[in-house]
Amino acid sequence: MIRRIARAIGDLFDRDGRERGLDAELRFHVDNAAEQLRAEGHSREDAERRARMNTGNLGAVKDECRETRLSHTIETSWLDLRQGIRMLTQNPGFTMAALGTLAVGIGATTAIFSLVYGVLLRPLPYGRGDDLIVLHQQAQARNQRDLRFSVKEIEDYRGAKNTLDAVVEHHSMVFLLLGDNFAERVQTAVVSANFFDSLGVKPALGRTFVESDDTAEADGVLVLSHKYWASRHGADPSIVGRMFAMNNRPHRVIGVLPPIPQYPIESAVYMPTSHCPTRSSQRFQANRNARMMTVFARKKQTATIEQARAELSSIARQLSQAYPESYRPELGYKIAAESLHEELTSSARPALMVLLGAAGFVLLIACANVANLLLAQLLRRGRELALRAALGASRGRLIRQLLAEGIVLSLAGGLLGVAIAPLSLRVLQRFAERFTPRAAEVALDWPVLAFALTAALITGIVFSLAPALWFHRGLNDAVRQGAGQSASAASNRLRAGLVVAQVAVAFVLLAGAGLMLRSVLALREVPVGFGTENVLSMRLTFNNRRYPAIADYRKAWDRILLELPQVNGATSVALSSNVPFDPAGVAIGPSNTEFAIEGRPVTKGELAPVVSTMNVSTEYFATLRQPILQGRGFNERDDAERPQVAMINQTMSRHRWPGENPIGRRVTFNAGQTWIEIIGVVGDVREYGLERPVGDQMYLPIRQNGFASRLIVRTVGDPSLMTGAVTRALRAIDGEIAIDQVSTMALLREESMASAQATAMLLAVFAGIAIVISAFGIGAVIALSVSQRRRELGIRLALGARHSSIIGMVMQQGLAMTALGAAIGIAAALALTTYLEKLLFATRANDPWTYGAVALLFLMIAALACVAPAWRISTIDPVSTLRQD
Amino acid sequence: MGKSKTEMLQGTLDLLILKTLELEPMHGWGITLRIQTLSENELRVNQGSLYPALHRLEENGWILAKWRATENNRQARYYELSAKGRRQLAAETENWLRLSGAVGRILGAAS
Q1: Do residue B51 and residue A33 have CB atoms under 8 angstroms apart?
Q2: Per residue in A169-192, pLDDT tens?
Q3: Residue A340 lies inside a defined structural domain of this protein
Q4: pLDDT at position B111, please?
Q5: Residues A473, A346 contacting (CB under 8 angstroms)
Q6: Cα(A277)–Cα(A251) distance, rounded to whole angstroms?
Q7: Which three-class secondary structure state does DSSP give residue A604?
Q8: How many CB atoms lie within 10 A of CB A289?
Q9: Do A764 and A864 belong together in one domain?
Q10: Is B51 within 8 Å of A65 when comparing Cβ atoms?
Q11: CB contact (8 A) between residue A56 and residue B47
Q12: pLDDT exceeds cutoff 50 at B72
């Protein structure tokens, strides 16, 4: 093979040498033949004449010799390419239409593929990422699939030594990081010393943790995430060694991580377990039920994930028997293990697959459109091609040339597509961020470019093959007719078929986009249960060293609640432990606590009732305008000195006390040590996002219970303009309060719908592109058919047909194609939109209204697309048409 | 070219060329003569098929071509069997013998 290529290269560079060789070789043969004939007694002239005659047509022999060579194939392909490029530059209208269509099709597909590749396909940027798994404890009876682990449990599961190499832990805390005139609340990941080694993460700067960092006596050390280092410390290369204070002790930065996806939460800094105040306490470590940590493991290369699950499960069974109090049988405890890759990407998969499908559909439509354009082009070139066939160009050669033209076209279109794809990259990354920590890995790199090239090549072959094959059959007709006039019956059918297919595919896309839009509209319609306008919210973090006791916090809270309403423009102020539509809450949903209702003992083996709780200040309901439906709200006297009280939402009232009055009933969270009296019922609020049905919710006053970290301010005007004034007022109370997650309730609500909206928008963009391309397809077919039938139409007009009836006839043709396409599209959409179901809210995948609207829209657009070409009929002058030819 | 002379299938010609070159390198004319002689004038090779066949075999890498002087001191293109060509010859010979044996048996049975 190598020799063959080398020779081909030699041939290509020394064409003359090759020709001379061929000449000399044949010459030698003829001379020898002549000599032999002379020896047999022929005269010299006679011998030479006979020898040459015997040789046959020398030129043909040479041709045949040349054709065996690789260099010949290369040469003719090159000619085909040049011919293709010439054809394209000679028809700028056709070329631009085709290139535009292809660029959009390939660009869209490439952009979406970069997303799919970066998130779903690219290997995890950890060493041997495929062996990393995440463990979950599950309480099936409570439908809890993501229970954390306690220290004791982690120690026990480290016993799975047959299948696991390492078991490491991770939990997330929020600490204040204090530097020189620098106080910041930082999301802190607390991890095992061998966490990064087990994940196979090498630091970008400095080092990661070692065993000796993870002892109570060791100096405090921190590793910064790449993002935090870059965004907050200006990617300072000398950051290693810098000292910060955290939890009242010095911490030294020892390293910076590379840019890796962080799971389960994006953190600013990492510290070893022994320096987390909570994690290092003796009581916490001894408590089997203090489940706070996420557990990662590295599976042995020789073990399968099923074997790992089996070994973990056998440990879980032993634990259940040894500690029945911690693993109550009625809860259905189990241990689950999933690959880290799956954990990181599973929530992105449905939306990404739908989008990839949509982009693929757009590419298909683009293919059909270009095929159609090429066919029309072929009809016009019928005479040229017939002539070349008559002059001896082989049929295979002509088809190869058509393919070459197609590939030139698709590669150019692909190049354009790749050029426009990066424009969408930022948008797509933002989109991916809503689903997966891997969004930063989305890029237009080699695998994606290779994909684009392959897509372009396949596209080129697909869309030039249909015309080429038709051409193969239709050439005889073309030769006979000498022109593309009536060789077109077969091609018209093919063109109409392509348009029908386009409409069908575009219909599926539009139906999908329509369903998503309807779902978003349904989401927007969901009553949130409070007044979202003019409400500012932010998260506060107090330096806990300044507030040794809960009473100190309560004093600070009282000051905030007293002084903040004085800020100009604030009408009402509240503190709480959560806010509705908090992104973390929307992502994971409520975390429920078991409780007991007075007079309703739970028998052993029965599930205790659960409720989601939050702590609120007195003015919370008034500030949010959440209506109090029954009983009273909290007041200033509901403090630590008085009996504990609670309010519940309407759902809980109906659920736990159907047909009864819940006011005055008592519940307990600590087996009756303290009883909490229900004093009021408030309206339902979609605390955890619009898509989650409202669950049982209980509100407890912060003067009696728990902590508050959210400040909520109702304002007179635009709440976002109040941030500065509110911050200043807070700083006046305590200069070390860290403030973040500043937002308005309206924004938080929008944000909670953003992923659905973004998916809907992307689908709508694809559907829009599809419908425009299809409309052009319909229009082009009608236009060509009008120009082909010009004579026939002229005759009809001459015989007395009215313009309007002929226009109607042509329009009918266009609408018939559309109707057929739409009919096929409906069937296809009914089958395919079931894949959308996971993404839909309160909308059925076969929603008849959406389908009806889409069908109507299509007919209207088809009518519009037919109008322009049909209008040209009115310009037909019967007399001049009849004189043609 | 007498019509009665046996027309050769392409594969057969390839086989004969390879066989002819088995002993020593030869030019195209020499191959023509050798096939004619060995077949006792039963087979005649048409140049129109011979040279394309030679170039094809060369392209396949079964034979190698070299310009060399003849005994009359003229430059001629000599073809020589490559190692790959030798293997091909062995395989094709076996194929041919098997095939012709089979055909012969059928013809023998029919008579």
Answers
A1: no
A2: 999 998 888 887 777 889 999 999
A3: no
A4: 52
A5: no
A6: 14
A7: coil
A8: 11
A9: yes
A10: yes
A11: yes
A12: yes
CB contact under 8 A, B74 and A28: yes
B60 to chain A: closest CA residue: A4
Q: Which CATH number fits domain B10-104: 2.30.42.10, 1.10.10.10, 3.90.228.20, 3.90.45.10?
A: 1.10.10.10
* Alpha helices (H) along A120-276: 151-157, 195-199, 226-232
Could you give the CA distance from residue A510 to residue B106 in angstroms, rounded to a whole number? Answer: 68
Residue A326 identity? S
- Identify whether A314 is part of a domain: no
- Is A50 within 8 Å of chain B by CB? no
- Give chain B positions within 8 Å (CB) of A21: 67, 77
CB A134 within 8 A of CB A337: yes
> From the CA of B11, how many Å to the nearest CA of chain A?
15
Pair (A63, A79) in one structural domain: no
CA distances for A416 relative to A372, A413, A452, A772, A880, angstroms? 20, 5, 11, 19, 43
Q: What residues in A contact B32, CB-CB < 8 Å?
A: 29
* Residue extents of the structural domains in chain B: 10-104
- Closest chain B residue to the Cα of A27, Cα to Cα: B76
- The helix/strand/coil state of A43 is coil
Q: Does A69 touch chain B (CB under 8 A)?
A: yes
Q: What is the DSSP code string of A189-214?
A: EEE-TTHHHHHT---SEE----GGGS
Residues A29, B32: C-beta atoms closer than 8 Å: yes
Residue A577 three-state SS? coil
With cut-offs at 50, 70 and 90, classify the pLDDT of residue A165: very high
- A228 within some domain: yes
Q: What residue numbers bound the domain in which A249 lies?
A: 129-300
Q: Is A59 on the interface with B (CB under 8 A)?
A: no
User: Does residue A333 belong to any structural domain of this protein?
Assistant: no
As for how many domains chain A has, the answer is 5
Contact with chain B for residue A73, Cβ under 8 A? no
**Residue A2 burial (CB count, 10 A):** 7
Question: Is A57 within 8 Å of B27 when comparing Cβ atoms?
Answer: no
Residue A777 sits in the same domain as residue A817: yes
Probe site for chain A from B36, B55, B62, B68 (most A CB atoms < 10 A) = B55
- Contact list, A25 vs chain B (CB under 8 Å): 27-28, 51, 76-77
Q: What confidence tens digit (pLDDT) does each residue in A464-516 have?
A: 877 777 666 655 555 555 444 445 566 777 888 888 999 999 999 999 999 99
Chain B positions touching A26 (Cβ under 8 A) are 47, 51
Asked if the C-beta of B27 comes within 8 angstroms of chain A's C-beta atoms, the answer is yes
Distance CA A706, CA A664 (A): 22
Yes or no, beta carbons of B48 and A64 under 8 Å apart: yes
Q: Are A55 and B47 an interchain contact pair (Cβ–Cβ within 8 Å)? A: yes
Please indicate, yes or no, whether residues A137 and A258 belong to a single structural domain of this protein: yes
Spell out the residues 6+ positions from residue B65 whose beta carbon is closer than 8 angstroms to its own. Answer: B54, B58, B77, B78, B79, B80
Nearest-angstrom CA–CA distance, A143 and A836 = 24
- pLDDT digit string (tens) for A12-61? 777 788 788 888 888 888 888 888 888 888 888 888 888 777 766 777 77
Whether A72 has its CB under 8 Å from any CB of chain B: the answer is no
Select the residue from B26, B51, B57 to test the A interface by mutation, using most A Cβ atoms within 10 A.
Answer: B51
Q: What are phi and psi of A271, to 5 degrees?
A: -140, 155
Phi-psi group of A570: left, alpha or beta (phi > 0 → left; psi -120 to 50 → alpha; rest → beta): beta
Residues in A touching B55 (Cβ below 8 Å): 65-66, 68-69
Q: Does the CB of B85 have a partner CB in chain A at under 8 Å?
A: no
| pLDDT tens-digit map of A736-786 | 888 888 999 999 999 889 888 888 999 999 999 999 888 888 888 888 888
More confidently predicted of A209 and B50: A209
